[in-house]
Amino acid sequence: MGIRNKSVVPASIKDPACGTTVKNKKGMTNLGNGIYFYSKKCLNNNLDEYAKKIDILSLAEKERKMTHKISFKAFGHATSFLIASTFVVCVIFDLMFPEYAMYSLWLKLLPGFEWITWKGFFLGLLESYLYGWYVTLIWVPIYNYVNSKSK
Q: Residue 3: what pLDDT?
């Protein structure tokens, strides 16, 4: 089997796949991440076949088998925070530059929203946050499904 710690190398090792004896790292091949295969002689034949013989997956095979799923909770909070903070920035912009105000759009998108009231502001903030979760409920399952099928 491969040695994972570079500093601990036995004096001699018998390669489990082809029986070659390797002494003091001579003939060993570093595959990165601290993973060594014992004998270059055995590696010259077929790396994937050698890896299977000694019960270690090749790095390329590990990458093929890995799947990355997006965390529902993390994506939901991040998206919701982005949309809610954008709402706050837009309200501030509308108050600073009333001639370019967009509050009429908020009246259409956010049910119950009232312009220039605390109740309307906090309701709009809550609804913006919930829109982030709406996006998450649709996008994350689609992404995770498509990503699992593309591997």
A: 47
Rounded CA gap, 66 and 21, in Å?
A: 33
Give CA–CA dist 88/4, Å, rounded: 51
Q: Read off the tokens for 127.
A: 């609804």
CA angle 101, 104, 109 (to 5 degrees): 125
**What is the amino acid identity at position 104?**
S
Q: How many CB atoms within 10 Å of residue 81?
A: 13
Measure the CA–CA gap between 88 and 104, rounded to whole angstroms.
15
Cα 141 from Cα 70, distance rounded (Å) = 9
**Confidence grade of residue 32 (pLDDT, cut at 50, 70, 90):** low
